[in-house]
Fold:
Amino acid sequence: MRKLVKTLVLCGLFLMALTICASADEIAYTTADVLNVRSMPSTSAEIVGQYPYGTQLSVTDSTDLWYQIRFNSGFAYVHSDYVKFSPVATPDQLALGERVVEKAKQYIGTPYVYGGSSPSGFDCSGFVKYIYSHFGVNLDRVAAAQSRNGYAVSADNMMPGDIICFAGYGGYGYVNHVGIYVGNGQFIHSPRTGYTVCIETLALSSYGNRIAGVRRIF
Structure:
């Protein structure tokens, strides 16, 4: 009897772990402004790092209220209260993303206007908000707020239509600019005064070193 009970308990824990950990069609990301990464699954354990809001995680296991994640060359733990799971892109999402890009391309050459959010002139977040409004999406107005719209994906997993958020060098600090990922390492945006809506290559501009996060809306 004891052996049977032990087996049932272990099976129950195994099934619980399966429901908690990310599956192949989900991504996990942080929801705290700053999430402590600890050496062990305990609030008294050493803090070995910190992740900002929206960081994508590689979850490998779960222990009670903690997730084990890949961290540097090993493993660490984050509290499950501050982790959310979202599905990866589906074919429908990919199709919508492509439509967003095609819509955005229609406004190439539109001048930058501070505070602008119409075809007579756009600032960066006004442009992104305007494009998404054509797809029934009401984004926040300013870049910093748009960096919290939708859900986070890693820069390695960007798809057309995703919003790229930029901050200071290395992606640190306040989000002060946004654009829409086009694909093939390029993005479309309304840069600054004296410029017009254009497509740029991330690797060939300073923006490639300023990515603070990527948001998927659909």
Q: What stands out?
A: The CA atoms of residues 58 and 70 lie 6 Å apart. Residues 2-87 form a domain with the SH3 type barrels. fold (CATH 2.30.30.40). The chain has two domains: 2-87, 91-216.
